[in-house]
Amino acid sequence: xxxxxxxxxxxxxxxxxxxxxxxxxxxxxxxxxxxxxxxxxxxxxxxxxxxxxxxxxxxxxxxxxxxxxxxxxxxxxxxxxxxxxxxxxxxxxxxxxxxxxxxxxxxxxxxxxxxxxxxxxxxxxxxxxxxxxxxxxxxxxxxxxxxxxxxxxxxxxxxxxxxxxxxxxxxxxxxxxxxxxxxxxxxxxxxxxxxxxxxxxxxxxxxxxxxxxxxx
Length: 216
Prior knowledge:
It is built from 11 helices and no strands. The chain is mostly helical.
């Protein structure tokens, strides 16, 4: 019986099994964090007043706690550490903690310059800067998103945000140009509707009723 146990141990070393277990635990932690984030975000979208309730904020904090657990256990150079830090920044933003979101998203940009998630991190970093009324830095970061390949969803949101910033600066032609770019690639009905509505408002402000009529 002892020989059988020894043979089994030699044939199936514990280290690969341990690594497999740790890998599964690692991924499950991130998966659960992402689910908490998605659940909180959906509740926020479904809320009538658009306010972050204590229940919603608690779910974002759950996301943050799980992500820090992942980073602390497996280091900030592990496979999904960039995913975790991005989720931390996004969760603080959604919880209306903009100083924290700005800090952690800036850390992401500095720590992971080669990450495929960099454009998304820059988008949320720029959003944080807008909330903190640092519009010039926000605009510069939005523009820098296009320094590398970026998918249409992130690009559309970046164009929309730039449109808003140019509108606040009363640079209406540049605002409309960016809203149009957003419309050209956006697959999100809500973003597209908001871009069209905002363009219409600008044309009315400029008393360009013919152009406003073409948006109907």
